[in-house]
Amino acid sequence: VPSASAQTLFVWGLEAVPGLEHSLFSAFSKFGPLYSVRTHRNAAVAGPGYYAVLKFYSSRAAHRAQRACNGQRLFQKSPLKVCVCTKQRAFQMPVLALNSNKCQELANHYLGFNGWSSRIITLQNVSGFDNENEEMGKTLQKRSLKYLCAVEVTIPTHGVRSRGVGLAEADIENGEDPLEFVTATRRVQKLAAGKALSSAFQKILLVVLDTGKVAVEYNCTQEEPTDSLTEEELKGLIQVN
Where is the RRM domain (predicted)? Predict the structure, then answer.
């Protein structure tokens, strides 16, 4: 699960059928997990109807879907036209990591809901001191929340373990409001845990074979110093830093 780079299909000749995006998802997800499905109305010069942009995690799945669905009616009266988008951008875009929800979606598809697990090793408040700002003769307390989380992902049948660390922060405008403080704390904790989970998944490679079987490898090239620490050492390091 290295990144959010996906293979794109362009689908046109779509009719205005009820639940169009759901119909597309149902038809194309049979070939592999979809990263996203987006439908758009045709431009006025192109006449009535819609087109769609579908993104697969797997290039192999996208090509299989294109070959099987191009020229087929599927869920409408007229046949669809499907092509693989091969045009490259004029400049290189930065490769973004998959967010934690997408990582879990992909892991569930290829490994099964019981094929992997995750646990939080530590979740600690690493906030600094409050900042005092003078504004119109009044002293306002602006609290800054910062949490650091360490997560471990385990894939037992393949003997793979991977750790990830995530940091999240947010400012609380009204530090005296307990409800706002609690709400912000939960939000920052959840965000830190999500970043840590995503970080752990970046070191795991899912290799989908032609037979449909999935091989799992740990990507040692992305190994970090914290990976070799014990849990107590990791907690202590976070507390010190």
Answer: 7-87
Q: In whole angstroms, give the CA distance from residue 126 to residue 65.
A: 47
**Packed helices 20-28 and 59-69: angle between N→C axes, nearest 10 degrees:** 110
Is it the case that residue 5 has pLDDT exceeding 50? yes
**Count H helices, E strands: the chain?**
5, 10
How far apart (Å, rounded) are the C-alpha atoms in residues 16 and 13?
A: 10
Q: How do residues 116-142 score in pLDDT, each as one tens digit?
A: 999 999 999 988 644 444 444 444 456
- Residue 180's pLDDT band (cuts 50, 70, 90): confident
Q: How far apart are CA 11 and CA 39, in angstroms?
A: 9
Query: What domains, with CATH codes, occur in the chain?
Result: 5-84 (3.30.70.330), 100-130+141-237 (3.30.390.80)
Can you give the pLDDT at residue 150?
93
The whole-angstrom separation of Cα 240 and Cα 126 is 10
Angle at 65 between CA 62 and CA 70, to 5 degrees: 125
Query: What DSSP designation does 114 have?
Result: T
Q: In the structure encoding, which two tokens stand for residue 118, read together? A: 């995750």
The DSSP letter of residue 70 is: T
The pLDDT value recorded for residue 234 is: 62
In this predicted structure, the answer to whether residue 94 has a pLDDT above a threshold of 70 is no
Name the DSSP letter for residue 229. S
